[in-house]
Amino acid sequence: MIEIVGVKTIGGVNNIGRFARFVWQSVIASLLSCARPHTYPLIWTQMNIIGVRSVPVVMITGAFVGMTLAVQAYDQLAGMGLEEHLGVLINISVVKELGPVLAAVMLAGRIGGALTAELGTMNVTEQIDAVRSMGTNPIRYLVAPRVLACLLLTPFLIIYADLMGIVGGYFVSVVQLGINSRAYWSFSAYGVELWDVAIGVIKGFFFGVAIAAISCYKGFTCKEGAHGVGQACTEAFVASFISILALDFALAVIFKSIYNTFWPLKSLV
Amino acid sequence: MKKDDKKNGTQAGNGDGIIVLKNVAKNFGTSVVLDNISLAIEKGKTTVVIGPSGCGKTVLIKHLIVLLRPSSGEVFFKGQRIDNLSEIELNKIRTHYGFLFQGGALFDSLSVTENILFPIRQHYEISDWKQAEELVKAKLAMVGLDGFQNYYPAKLSGGQRKRVALARAIALNPEVILYDEPTTGLDPIRADVINELILKLQRELGMTTVVVTHDMTSAYKVADRIIMLHNGKIIADGDADHIRDHPHPVVQQFINGQVSEEDLAVLRMSGAISQAQFLPRDFEQ
Questions:
Q1: Can you tell me the ipTM of this complex?
Q2: How many domains is chain B built from?
């Protein structure tokens, strides 16, 4: 029993160490790629696959988030006669939390799964070994462009999700539920600050790197066979999902501390 | 290893091997795949490593280029120890090698031209694309596939894929070329095409060649020297005639394709077939 616990603990620590090393190598390779113009075409290609093709699904996700929030929150606020404040509730929830998190979860499913499956298949068919055998660092060639594409484009995708969430929330609140449009927007403008929007967008950088690093790592370490690739995809999505939630919590705490520290200075400005 | 084998083979440490393994062992968990192997690969010759499936042939060939690092022991390339180098340092060494993987390992998303240019683009700046196209044409002509430049790997047959992979492996004009099961999965005619290509490249380019295979027809055809691996150890080492006449029963079983008495005893187990047939019949009812 103690032996089994010991073996599992050592295995877990080893895995964490290997992942940390992989992330470190990916960060170094990504920084070096920025300084090498001949790697830009690889980054552009990944930006197209990861970013541009994800725009429709992320926009749909954002729109439904905004619309659902409006439907759910209307009754509570209307019961207190505060239905005109619906815009604050929807927009602050969308830009600060739900837009970034749900857009990132959608990306983890769409992009994370594809990255893991692609790199996992390359791994089991020895294509990654082939890259190494030709004197090329596979992390620089395969991982860095994907990490950079996710890092740079996840914040933009979150902006699209936010935008559609705001539009969706407005549509249901004003057009369907009949809330006064002017009141809706004026309360929203009063309640939602640039800081709130910035928090959501900044989270995107962290979510993007987490999704790319986890998915690429799972692809690089996947076991042989169709089952191995399938299992790696599942593990990549679950790990990405949990990382997104954990990062969201950690960043919320950090941003709140920053806000509380600098908020008194705002009145002086 | 028998004393006679040492006379025929080239042992590690005698200084004339382009690649030398010294006391190399490789373990995966508790499983010992290579057990204290010492070996020198002679420059300009074709060395064939034979052995049953799962005996560690692929693990051995991957140690020659340090795609796998030994659990213990040392690997030398042209007198320089390479198993302890960083990946960045190894990348420079690996440009002296070409590696033909078992399934070809062509990049699915790249065309044949892009696959062949891949190693060149990684190490050189291509300024004259017309010259690059000429180079691809020449490499494809060497493997008899000129005209396939714009094909993607998915559109090629197994034999064609291996030939394109071979063209890619020789793109950087390597000094050493490693073949991992080059004829596996091919029909006898296409397998012979690959054998002829191995001989042609060796003859025309003078490369040091290492072939891992369990195809004895291929081994006899291309080998200057044959090494047999069994249970992670070298049990035979010499030229084709030496291997044919080798007294070790495992070598004779392998080269003649004979099943061992132990395996036969398992197959002859009484009642095994009737037991295996029991369940399907049961389901039919």
A1: 0.84
A2: 1
